Amino acid sequence: MAYAESRIIRVIKGRRPKVVVIGGGTGLPVILNALKEKNAEITAIVTVADDGGSSGAIRNYINVVPPGDIRNVLAALSDLPQESKDIFQYRFDSSDSFFAGHAIGNLIIAALNEMHGNIFDAVQSLSKMMKVDGHVFPASNEPLTLNAEFVDGSREAGETEITSKDKRIKRIWVTDTNDDKEPEAVLPVLASIMQADAVVLGPGSLFTSILPNLMISNLGEAVRQTKAEVIYICNIMTQKGETDHFSDADHVRIINKHLGGNYIDTALVNGAKIDMSKFNPADYDEYLEPVSSDFAGLREQNCRVITDDFIDQRHGLVFHDGEKVAKEIIDLAFEAHCRRGENNG
User: Is residue 176 within 8 Å of residue 262, measured between CB atoms?
Assistant: First the structure.
């Protein structure tokens, strides 16, 4: 059904497209902001396996789910005045030895976790205080440890340790940091995936931001079972220690392999040439080169490919153009919603 027709249906039924975005990292808020501008009903499911920076330090001190990605997502979806969001995002200067490097929001999340006894309720409470338009769900209610097996057969635990090895990763999995329980997502996380029109993976680090969520067994199963359009926003640049020399098809292949089948319905792939003279690698030394294109490899995996100039190269950085990506997501969400209605009819 054409996009114009879908917009009419949306007005008649008064229904916002339901979009679930799964991931973490710096690229996620860009997409969430753009989807918010397009009036999507957003649920962000955020990774909890980070162990670096302020998040890692807080996690080590008080055994809480790492709050950094959650903090950034809350800020992206908040309807508070910008000044209030700036305070929430403020990071103490390194000259302050006690609070050095910590963001105020991370400390607030840690405090609420202690007050509520779990991270899920803490984030829901903070979402209300921050007037979040949508839902922010930690992927798990418990801190998780990321584990990896490398191509050479060796293994390592912990995101920071894994990426520092600079080895090709064969597979990853997650374990509960505190005990031997099977990691699980709570019911609202699963329900959001099953009720979605579109489930979006990325953008973000393949092995450390996207796959850790999918390796939570019941969350991965929900992605396999959902009738939503499962969309992968392909990364623009390869990442040192994770996706060296990967093509777009390689990224999708790794996700599908971890899910156990061809579950990516559509890949959004940048087709524009990157002006490397505008790219300042000193700011992002973990990135190596533009992700190469392998259209045939994507089609072999029964993956629809949408290619466009999806990049924003202002200020010497390379980010996704949130507005363009969000438009494609909304179009695909409406298509999926209409298909579901036709099948139910």
Answer: no
